[in-house]
């Protein structure tokens, strides 16, 4: 367990904001103190707000055709409609083996309504393995930040990945390949590689207690245990949940996923309370965390 310091980009933004205020109001004027975190978005969180079907932001949606995509199979983009809050962090999400984005599409507007740009991808083929899905997630992030119609709404230094089943295994692959990512959220992840000792990206793994396809004893838990103790990590296990829990609205998953992304993509310490010591509910059979501080 360790304390994350304010990243260089935040320090630079704070210095710039302070200098701008000084220039505008002049010496000796009383001004409000600059916000501690320039990436903080939205109101102070509450559990009831996180459990709601939508967050504080209105959301718009646009499609990415397979023909316009490079390195992945197109998909859907969800983004906060407002332009008043500056840029947002972004996340790419992959469906699982044989599945399409529509199988987990509820995640798109749910996450975007809390202040993220989300791209839910279609894979090149539905049989693509985790390593390929990881590469496609990174290609989708590159498209999102460099070529998409919403690129001006995104802070390209604050990116994350997620996915279900082989897509979850793919999110581990992407986080391993691109350590500059701010977060990864594998859902019921499946991968033949059980060791992720090289991973440094803050990672939340969500598993289903009754999963018989990617059993937590041979997938989620070994993945979690292999991530070094020096990295930020959490493991959420859903009571009696099958492998397909992400394919319908799952509030405990949404609460932890939003909290994780807000904490590590937005550096928003207001959400630490939902990560450490963590949730307590009859719908949760196990929860473990390195407990981020601050």
From TrEMBL:
<keyword id="KW-0732">Signal</keyword>
<comment type="similarity">
    <text>Belongs to the AB hydrolase superfamily.</text>
</comment>
<feature type="signal peptide">
    <location>
        <begin position="1"/>
        <end position="34"/>
    </location>
</feature>
<dbReference type="InterPro" id="IPR029058">
    <property type="entry name" value="AB_hydrolase_fold"/>
</dbReference>
<dbReference type="GO" id="GO:0052689">
    <property type="term" value="F:carboxylic ester hydrolase activity"/>
</dbReference>
<dbReference type="InterPro" id="IPR006311">
    <property type="entry name" value="TAT_signal"/>
</dbReference>
<dbReference type="InterPro" id="IPR050261">
    <property type="entry name" value="FrsA_esterase"/>
</dbReference>
<protein>
    <submittedName>
        <fullName>Putative dienelactone hydrolase</fullName>
    </submittedName>
</protein>
<dbReference type="Pfam" id="PF12740">
    <property type="entry name" value="PETase"/>
</dbReference>
<keyword id="KW-0378">Hydrolase</keyword>
<dbReference type="InterPro" id="IPR041127">
    <property type="entry name" value="PET_hydrolase/cutinase-like"/>
</dbReference>
<feature type="domain" description="PET hydrolase/cutinase-like">
    <location>
        <begin position="33"/>
        <end position="292"/>
    </location>
</feature>
């Amino acid at each position: 367990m360790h304390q994350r310091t304010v990243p260089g980009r935040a320090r630079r933004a704070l210095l710039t904001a302070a200098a701008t205020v000084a220039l505008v109001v002049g010496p000796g004027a009383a001004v409000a103190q600059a916000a501690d975190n320039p990436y903080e978005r939205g109101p102070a969180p509450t559990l009831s707000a996180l459990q709601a079907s939508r967050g504080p932001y209105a959301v718009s949606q646009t499609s990415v055709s397979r023909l316009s995509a490079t390195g992945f199979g197109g998909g859907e983009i969800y983004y906060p409609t407002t332009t008043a809050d500056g840029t947002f962090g972004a996340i790419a999400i992959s469906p699982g083996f044989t599945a399409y984005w529509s199988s987990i599409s509820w995640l798109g507007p749910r996450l975007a309504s809390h202040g993220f740009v989300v791209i839910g991808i279609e894979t090149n083929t539905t049989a693509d393995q985790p390593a390929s899905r990881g590469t496609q997630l990174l290609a989708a992030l590159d498209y999102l930040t460099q070529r998409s119609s919403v690129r001006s709404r995104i802070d390209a230094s604050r990116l994350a990945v997620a996915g279900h089943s082989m897509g979850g295994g793919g999110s581990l692959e992407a986080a391993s390949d691109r350590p500059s990512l701010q977060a990864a959220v594998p859902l019921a992840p499946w991968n033949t590689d059980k060791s992720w000792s090289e991973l440094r990206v803050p990672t939340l793994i969500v598993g289903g207690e009754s999963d018989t396809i990617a059993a937590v004893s041979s997938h989620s838990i070994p993945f979690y245990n292999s991530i070094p103790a020096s990295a930020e990590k959490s493991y959420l296990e859903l009571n009696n949940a099958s492998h397909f829990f992400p394919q319908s609205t799952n509030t405990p998953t949404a609460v932890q996923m939003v909290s994780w992304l807000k904490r590590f993509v937005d550096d928003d310490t207001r959400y630490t309370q939902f990560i450490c010591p963590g949730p307590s509910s009859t719908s949760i059979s196990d929860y473990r965390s390195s407990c981020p501080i601050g």
